[in-house]
Structure formats: structure tokens, C-alpha cells
Amino acid sequence: ARSFCSKITKFQIGGSDDWALGSAGITYSFTIELPPKGSPGFVLPASRILPVGKEMYAGVAAMLERLKNNS
């Protein structure tokens, strides 16, 4: 099995999600990344922590609901 990233870019990134999907046979494998707003990389200014946390929570909750309903 190939990860979504490797399917669209033809590269194997080598993250734990790729291993879980390809080697361990785990059906659903995801990597959640924070938006890189503010300074370069994933360092958020203190003022962005709560809004990003709420956004991430809503996204994970929606994903879990969808997985639950499609299982």
C-alpha cells in the first residue's frame, strides 16, 4: 500500500503514517500538521495557539465522525 503523498508525488516521505499504512497494515493513517502562520515553520505566536487548537479539534472531531459513520 502507498500513502496518499506517495500516490500524488511519487515520493515516499518515510513518516510514521507511511510505515503504519504500508508496513503495519493499519487501515487509516494520518499526519496532522499545524498551519505555519506567524514565523517560519510551525512556531505559532501565542495569540494563534487557541484559535489553531479549536480549528484542529474541529477537524479531528469531523474526521472521527466520518470514520465512525463509514465503518
Radius of gyration: 15 Å
| Share in β-strands | under 5%
The sequence of SSEs as H and E is: HHH
How helical, in percent, are the residues?
Answer: 40-55%
- Alpha-beta classification: mainly alpha
Sheet with the most strands? none
Shape call: flat
Low-confidence stretches: none
**Structure annotation, total helices:** 3
Main attributes of the structure:
mainly alpha
Describe this structure in words.
This protein has helices at 4-9, 16-22, 46-69. It is an all-alpha fold and 71 residues long. It starts with a helix and ends with a helix. 3% of the residues are buried. The model has no long low-confidence stretch (mean pLDDT 75).
Helices, strands, pairings?
Layout: H1 4-9, H2 16-22, H3 46-69
Concise summary:
52% of the residues lie in helices and 0% in strands.
